[in-house]
Amino acid sequence: MDNFLFLTRLDYTLIVVTLGAALLGTVSGALGTYAVLRRQSLLGDAISHAALPGIAIAFLLTGSKTPLILVLGAAVAGWLGALAIISIVRLTRIKYDSALALVLSTFFGFGLVLYSLIQRSGNANQAGLDTFIFGQAATILKRDVITIGILGGIALIIMLILWKELKLLIFDEGFAASLGFPTRLLDILLTSLLVIAIVLGLQAVGAVLMSAMLVAPAVAARQWTNRLNLMVFLAAVFGAFAGVSGTIISSSTTGLPTGPMIILCATLFVGLSIAFAPNRGLIWDSIRQHKNRRSLKIAVGRLMEGPQQESE
Amino acid sequence: MPIGNLDIILIAVTTASACALPGVFLVLRRMTLMSDAISHAILPGIVLAFFLTHSLSSPLLILAAGATGVLTVVFVELLQKTKLVKEDAAIGLTFPALFSIGVILISRYASNIHLDIDAVLLGELAYAPLNRLEVFIADLNPLLLYVILHIQVQLQGYFSFSFDLGPMSLYVMGVLLVLNLAFIMIFYKELKLATFDASLAATLGLSPVLIHYGLMTLVSMTTVGAFDAVGSILVVALIVGPPATAYLMTDNLTRMLILSVVIGCVNAVIGYWFAYISNVSIAGAIASMTFIVFVLVFLIVPNRGLIAITRRHIRQKWEFAQTMLVIHLFNHEGLPEAEAESEVAHLHEHLQWEPTFASRVVRYALNNRYVSQKAAQLILTDRGRTIAQQALVQ
Amino acid sequence: MQALDSKAIEVTDLTVAYQETPVLWDIDLDVPPGVLLAIVGPNGAGKTTLIKAILGLVRPAAGNVLIYNKPYATQRRIVGYVPQRGSVDWDFPTNVLDVVMMGRYGALGWIKRPGSRDRELAMHALEKVGMENYTTRQISQLSGGQQQRVFLARALVQDATIYLMDEPFQGVDATTERAIISLLQELRENGKTVVVVHHDLQTVTDYFDWVTLLNIRRIASGPVKDTFTSENLRETYGGRIAFMKNR
Question: Which of the listed CATH numbers 1.10.3470.10, 3.30.70.3550, 3.90.1150.10, 1.10.10.10 matches domain B3-239?
Fold first, then answer.
């Protein structure tokens, strides 16, 4: 009974936070699908860490804590991080994984330097930088929800408008280019959409956990369908569900931080999907294997019986 | 300079060296993201071990967290084996989940104990020397006790029950450095072979799987040892940065190992001094320095650096164009269309070159006596013909 | 007869280099309309690069490509492309019909979604390659030969005049290979030009009527019976094909 007490406390703040988390889950779930399909799951991790210095610089320059300004700073820095990774891979012999890890950790380190500068000037909490490192869904305000709604909505609309082009880009880039689609430009656009999803999500789940917000809903969705449109839709739904359930569970008990709860919910969806999804799921698979083995046994049995009958 | 600074530098340099050594193999084996995953995923291991030992520097803690790290690797590999999840997604799923469990454990059960996520994630080198290794005299054997007492009495003139042997992190990282060094020296041949040709290593009976998990165990333990001092994200910079920088400079594995350690130490010292002067986060400054040094090396390193590449590019652009010209003439030599193809005025049309570019290439080729000009025609010289033939044969 | 002296593909003095390493040196190549042409050469000879350069997917250091006397960018709609099968992730969440419909994307242009007419065209192409019963099959559940047929159907649906195909026989079963070659020959009978990167020297004379021998530079190009000589082959492959001598 105690656990359901929170229902009576469904107050305004909780509604705002839940709504924000649901929106974030939707946006990052849908756009994360593209990252997972391009095998760039960890690019999200790098961008979310690389965004930190951007937030700090935006605050240092403007002294403002307006979410739009901080998100803009985060987006610019996140983009630079992605660009740095691509350039390192293209210009040096360093491989993708090393470039990613290098940019992720060093950009984040630079963010820490700036953060300690702000801290020294005594208004660290104002900058809300902690929020962006660890995530603090509970601090989501109405204006944050509006920012998330507008920016995330724009990103999703662009995704829907260019559905066919983006699908072709991910599936077969060379063929897309031969048809005359500007693949480089589409690539930049897709990365930009990913950056938007990430910088929006930072505030709720933080830099460390953001990658799971992108990856988990998409991986869960992939198990249930073989169609891209359904996968994107399911990923958005799973993302939203993870956001809502994580927020509500964490608000029901003390000592359960929201960001990690959201991630655990999303991971739970992955676990359930991998286990139970029809066709692809592990349980389904083992049943099928069992059946195959049995029918094989029967077939072998018949074969063994065959000659005996003949000899009789 | 207060003595704390020297301690910090010592810790930073030891940590950087200990991280750079296994990092070399991670970079070469394209597994650096595993270190990112491990550095986050060990959190629940640290927390659980902390509940048992109530100490952040107990060896048990390092072992437990190290085990969690190896478990992470195993888990990621298992996920991949289902063929339902690709490697990058498997990593991106596993470590946030484990990290989340760690965060929840802390905030639910350990909020009043000294263990906060800030410290785990960000680290603060400045506090590392505060945790001292103190030896209680009663633990020591009588002979040592006598010696220590003797010195103690002579030095300070009064009796003390405990004895400061330096910062704890220094010892932890020192031991890990020695472990890493020993592992690499003992299994150098096996590591090298497993890195560059895993299948050959397997056929020679040098189990690459064993080497793989050995390396992962070391990476996990090093990461745990280092997180206390520098935080889990800087650990990644220390593991990946110096080896990646060294990889730009050399092809030789031994040299790469040595260079990585040197670069790691340089980054640590310069980063520390910058942080000290401008009073900012030490861990952050070392990480930033890691990137700056990487970029600097990338710019200036001979042969592979950007400056060297660009200069070579410009030089080769003209050489290449001249080769293209002689090959063009060579291919059409003696054929009916040769006359049209070798006309100076129409060269830029055939090769789709800018007219100014084309005339400059012709001028160079004439200077080098690759071609000679007869009226409006370009004619290959013997020298030019040899060059064309050589280029085609390669 | 204007068609006779116009060239389907005209490559002049094409040089392509990745960084400073030349991959193709000063290639001249004329492909007359209505031929079935094999591009043959050892590994690393630049066969795929040549196709990609014709399609404008790699930028040449020098030289020019014309499709029916016009640059490729203006002639995209009459060129169909079959990339190497291994160049895509076959675990992508999509089905056979959907992949084939991608061949219509160029004609559709931006934003517009494929409609019922595109679906019909795709179905028709699938029938041509004998895959009409697999329309809703997830592409990862196809055999190598079936995957290749799907790629071929995607090119057919482009309704092109010129087809460029990168190793369409790579890793396919014998039945599929026969089906593909009869399809290519049918295309040629209908006046299409088909350029195929090919690996198997044994089948060149049976399958193709034109051949281009390539090894960084163009060794020879022309009708198979004049061009596919042991002398030219030796020049293309070096000393490694003694077994071809008695051909």
Answer: 1.10.3470.10
pLDDT 10s digits, C178-189: 999 999 999 999
Which residues in chain B touch residue A223, judged by CB atoms under 8 angstroms apart?
Answer: 84
* Option in A161, A164, A227 nearest C93 (CB): A227
Reported as a single tens digit per residue, the pLDDT across B362-391 is 888 888 888 888 777 788 888 888 888 777
CB burial string B360-392: b at 16+ within 10 A, e below? ebbebbbeeebbeeeeebbebbeebbebbeebb
- pLDDT higher than 50, residue C48: yes
Query: Chain A partners of B233 at a C-beta cutoff of 8 Å?
Result: 49, 104-105, 108-109
Q: What is the pLDDT of residues A204-236, one digit of tens each?
A: 788 888 889 999 999 999 999 989 999 999 999
Distance between CA atoms of residues A179 and B1, nearest Å: 67
Report how far residue B144's alpha carbon sits from residue B151's, in angstroms, rounded to the nearest whole number. Answer: 11
Average pLDDT, stretch B63-92? 87
Q: Taking a contact as any Cβ pair under 8 Å apart, which residues of chain C between 35 and 64 contact chain B? A: 60-64
Q: Can you tell me the distance from the alpha carbon of C149 to that of A178, in angstroms, rounded to the nearest whole number? A: 19
Chain B residues with CB under 8 Å of a chain C CB are 312-313, 316, 320-321, 324, 327-328, 331, 350-353, 391-392, 394
Is-contact A93 B304, C-beta < 8 A?
Answer: yes
- Selection from B182, B151, B179 nearest residue B165 by Cα: B151
**Torsion angle of C-alpha atoms B324, B327, B328, B329, degrees rounded to 10:** 130
Going from N- to C-terminal start, the domains of chain B cover 3-239, 306-393
Our CA dihedral for C223, C226, C231, C235, rounded to 10 degrees, sits at -30
User: Which among C13, C22, C216 is the nearest to B350, CB-wise?
Assistant: C13
| The pair of three-digit structure tokens given for residue A296, joined into one six-digit string | 């094989």
Whether the Cβ atoms of residue A39 and residue B88 lie closer than 8 Å to each other: yes
- Select the CATH number that applies to the domain covering B306-393 from these four: 3.30.930.10, 3.40.50.300, 1.10.10.10, 3.90.1170.40: 1.10.10.10
Name the residue among B267, B62, B72, B290 with its Cα closest to residue B179.
B62
| B95-123 residue pLDDT tens | 899 988 888 888 877 665 555 555 555 55
Identity of the amino acid at C131:
M
Neighbour subunits, C (≥3 Cβ pairs < 8 A): A, B
User: In angstroms, what CA-CA distances link B231 with A216, B66, B117, B222, B282?
Assistant: 26, 15, 10, 12, 11
Distance of CA A210 to the CA centre of its chain: 6
The terminus-to-terminus CA distance of chain A in angstroms comes to 73
ipTM, 2 dp: 0.90
Q: How far apart are CA C22 and CA C20, in angstroms?
A: 6
Residue whose tokens read 């090119």: C155
Question: Tell me, what amino acid is at B150?
Answer: H
Chain centroid to CA A114: 26
pLDDT of residue A128: 59
Average pLDDT of chain A?
A: 85
Beta bridge partners of A32: none
